[in-house]
């Protein structure tokens, strides 16, 4: 059973939900109804239990008649179970319709309501959701477990264009904006339909002054792809992603199976969006920090597209098996890099990922269960506490290790296809995945391949703790080499006075942004450089003023690492200003950046970290706010 849900989905499960929503920007709430078409799975089931979190429920109907319901006491993580009585004598295999009328409240964790100052255009407010891992229940009563897959239809009324993780029925995306009505003033009803069953965490909504541009059609594909953004960003966003998006998707189709969601659009959100990317079905959400003007952060798009197979297609059964989503996706994302660019790019991505993995493993030294690939969650444990690079990089390395153990891509890719075809549309556990793997190679490889699989130390991969992988992995480091060499020269220069250093701005010429990241990360692995060196490095290479957030993060990690230095204090101030958008309310809410930077500042100057956060607390997404509060020890 899903340890994060209170729903009785083994007895009765939603097949389709109809969402009728009104978005109220003045009151900052969504009000409406959710109508579930449920399938009975067990004779005489007497109630249906939905997950909810901070919803204001006003009425419940079963088959059109008022029903008895009970909102149970709130669990701090799982929320309040909504119990609804059903008529007696229900038979397995039959269906029943349940409608819940409700409003979201000011404590809705899934939604962030931005005022106009927090948008690019400054003219209209903005709303967006983040439901993964367990916040769909804060938007609608739902069986909030990835073990239940639902189709949905939505009729959403808003004074601003509304987007959902589904296929637009009306008004047309490529017609006049806001159906030809006045943006910000006239209410328009947007109709969406998601015919492919999806897990609840892929439910998503956004509403704001956004416009659409289609990417050029790719060969004779029967899907469409395009980009949504505020008008001020649409040009830059189109440029950043138009080359790669359709190429990535077409390559995934070649490696795996055809795309089945029909539409692959990207929405660029305001900077408080708490993730780099989120693979909402038909509509990936991304942070605007990807818009660096050099297309160097498009691997995030490769990642989110690949979730169409691993996650949105084959879904993890619940939080304990989360690595099946992220590990597989990361493995495949890096394979895309190899196919589209070169084997060196694949190896380079593993090298950068490995550093993140080791750092995150070390963070969990006091909670070793989160160092495991397979986390045995207790009922009601918060999956966000376990969120780290572990499922991504331990997972991707396990798959890579299996690929190599079996003899390489030629023998491995046919299996990948079989895996996806076998479980497409289903939700599975690690045990089911492993049984299929053995089954496939028993049939298609025989004893030799099974023996190869048996040589893998499954126990160590699944349940191993500590800060290293069960196997020492070798990666192609040819792209990292120049970066590592430059770092070694800086390391060797530590005893010299800065006035005598032989470094030039042009040292970084020819480095792409990943190589700059690798250079700064390598430097972090040595003893701290003298403060004067760090300041000189910053002024020479402009790494503390770059618009590339990946590079800037690494520089702050480097410069804040030794709290005893003047450089640490100087850059702690700068880092604080950067994260809160210099007080404009345009905070950099991607948790990878803001959580790490707040933690680093905290290590240098606790008061600065806490004061900075408190000043702009309400500009962060509720999820980020909660996690930063924990990181800064403001709550437990
Ligand atoms: N699905 C995740 C984001 C997520 C995971 C949100 C768990 C909430 C809970 C998404 O696909 C992701 O992995 N995003 C990464 C991007 C990356 C690894 C390229 C991110 O946001 O950093
Ligand atoms: Zn992912």
UniProtKB/TrEMBL annotation:
<feature type="binding site">
    <location>
        <position position="303"/>
    </location>
    <ligand>
        <name>Zn(2+)</name>
    </ligand>
</feature>
<feature type="binding site">
    <location>
        <position position="326"/>
    </location>
    <ligand>
        <name>Zn(2+)</name>
    </ligand>
</feature>
<dbReference type="InterPro" id="IPR049980">
    <property type="entry name" value="LTA4H_cat"/>
</dbReference>
<dbReference type="Pfam" id="PF01433">
    <property type="entry name" value="Peptidase_M1"/>
</dbReference>
<dbReference type="InterPro" id="IPR034015">
    <property type="entry name" value="M1_LTA4H"/>
</dbReference>
<dbReference type="InterPro" id="IPR014782">
    <property type="entry name" value="Peptidase_M1_dom"/>
</dbReference>
<keyword id="KW-0963">Cytoplasm</keyword>
<dbReference type="InterPro" id="IPR016024">
    <property type="entry name" value="ARM-type_fold"/>
</dbReference>
<keyword id="KW-0482">Metalloprotease</keyword>
<keyword id="KW-0479">Metal-binding</keyword>
<keyword id="KW-0645">Protease</keyword>
<comment type="similarity">
    <text>Belongs to the peptidase M1 family.</text>
</comment>
<feature type="binding site">
    <location>
        <begin position="274"/>
        <end position="279"/>
    </location>
    <ligand>
        <name>a peptide</name>
    </ligand>
</feature>
<dbReference type="GO" id="GO:0008237">
    <property type="term" value="F:metallopeptidase activity"/>
</dbReference>
<feature type="active site" description="Proton acceptor">
    <location>
        <position position="304"/>
    </location>
</feature>
<dbReference type="GO" id="GO:0008270">
    <property type="term" value="F:zinc ion binding"/>
</dbReference>
<keyword id="KW-0862">Zinc</keyword>
<dbReference type="InterPro" id="IPR027268">
    <property type="entry name" value="Peptidase_M4/M1_CTD_sf"/>
</dbReference>
<dbReference type="GO" id="GO:0004177">
    <property type="term" value="F:aminopeptidase activity"/>
</dbReference>
<feature type="binding site">
    <location>
        <begin position="130"/>
        <end position="132"/>
    </location>
    <ligand>
        <name>a peptide</name>
    </ligand>
</feature>
<dbReference type="InterPro" id="IPR038502">
    <property type="entry name" value="M1_LTA-4_hydro/amino_C_sf"/>
</dbReference>
<dbReference type="GO" id="GO:0005829">
    <property type="term" value="C:cytosol"/>
</dbReference>
<dbReference type="GO" id="GO:0004301">
    <property type="term" value="F:epoxide hydrolase activity"/>
</dbReference>
<feature type="binding site">
    <location>
        <begin position="590"/>
        <end position="592"/>
    </location>
    <ligand>
        <name>a peptide</name>
    </ligand>
</feature>
<dbReference type="InterPro" id="IPR015211">
    <property type="entry name" value="Peptidase_M1_C"/>
</dbReference>
<dbReference type="InterPro" id="IPR045357">
    <property type="entry name" value="Aminopeptidase_N-like_N"/>
</dbReference>
<feature type="active site" description="Proton donor">
    <location>
        <position position="392"/>
    </location>
</feature>
<dbReference type="InterPro" id="IPR001930">
    <property type="entry name" value="Peptidase_M1"/>
</dbReference>
<feature type="binding site">
    <location>
        <position position="307"/>
    </location>
    <ligand>
        <name>Zn(2+)</name>
    </ligand>
</feature>
<dbReference type="Pfam" id="PF17900">
    <property type="entry name" value="Peptidase_M1_N"/>
</dbReference>
<keyword id="KW-0378">Hydrolase</keyword>
<dbReference type="InterPro" id="IPR042097">
    <property type="entry name" value="Aminopeptidase_N-like_N_sf"/>
</dbReference>
<protein>
    <recommendedName>
        <fullName>Peptidase M1 leukotriene A4 hydrolase/aminopeptidase C-terminal domain-containing protein</fullName>
    </recommendedName>
</protein>
<dbReference type="Pfam" id="PF09127">
    <property type="entry name" value="Leuk-A4-hydro_C"/>
</dbReference>
<dbReference type="GO" id="GO:0006508">
    <property type="term" value="P:proteolysis"/>
</dbReference>
<feature type="domain" description="Peptidase M1 leukotriene A4 hydrolase/aminopeptidase C-terminal">
    <location>
        <begin position="478"/>
        <end position="632"/>
    </location>
</feature>
